[in-house]
Fold each of these.
Amino acid sequence: MNVRQRGAARRYARALLDVAVEQGRVEEVRRELRQSAQLLALHPELSTALSQPAVSIDRKRALAREVFDRLGAGELLTRLVDLLMTRGRLDLLADIEQAVTAAWNAQRGVLMADAVTADDLTVAQQERLSAALAAASGSGIELKTAGDPRVLGGVRVTMGGRIYDGTVRGRLQALRRHL
């Protein structure tokens, strides 16, 4: 994504977030936005159909309305998708989702943390990790977790632009470099 696209995504995100805050629907809009971005990423044929210049805007709107109604998207997200389709900017949806999350977290003083472990963490483990990261950083934490068997064990956390690697794989690589 180039600088121009990043700026456009941030402007859309700021406007969307302002309206969502005003309506008291921030978490709902974030969830819908995340689901919509995932849907378009998983179904590139849908994204292509909604972006095709050869397809009339009325047909695109009908298709988008049907798809996003089935997804359970609210009026705010549906209007955003319609605006992006009309302007030929539907490709910005995933970037807008990231920008909304970043802006909302900045507004609340919350850091985003991504944790990767060998196995998926239980809810209790996620809560303990989130509490430990909050205590270490002095900020609230929004934690995303993922399982990756390649890490072998331990946890790798990316937070605030830094990577904290406490994985077995990371330690083995460090030992290999040292030797």
Amino acid sequence: MKKLFLSLFSMFTIATAIAFTNTDPGINEQVQESFKKEFAGAELVKWTNTGDYVKATFILRGYRTEAYFTQKGQLEGSVRSLFYNQLPLAVMTSLDKRFGNADVFDVNEITNSSGTTYRITLESKGRKYLAKVDTAGNLTDIQKLKK
């Protein structure tokens, strides 16, 4: 009975360690080290090799996040999903002025070497739009989308 208990305990410990590891054998060590440095505390990490870039999809402090790295481990940028009310006040004010009481479907915060911008998919007056807004609330691009 004691051996059975120790065996089960050992199997459970190993399975738990494997389930919570942030590493992937197909992703090089430079990328993994850079990821650990930039996103300490990330959970549920899934790696995808996209050719020129390595994408990590994960949960960080309750937010779904994607990070893109070069094969040498340099962070190129990240995308974080947000709720509308988590946008900076300047961004919300700008969108409210331009689109009124629009229905918001998707909000993404994009951070890279150029800075931070927001990509918002919304519907106003029966039309669907993709709006890109900088942190100061300036609408940098608006595209009409097909419904």
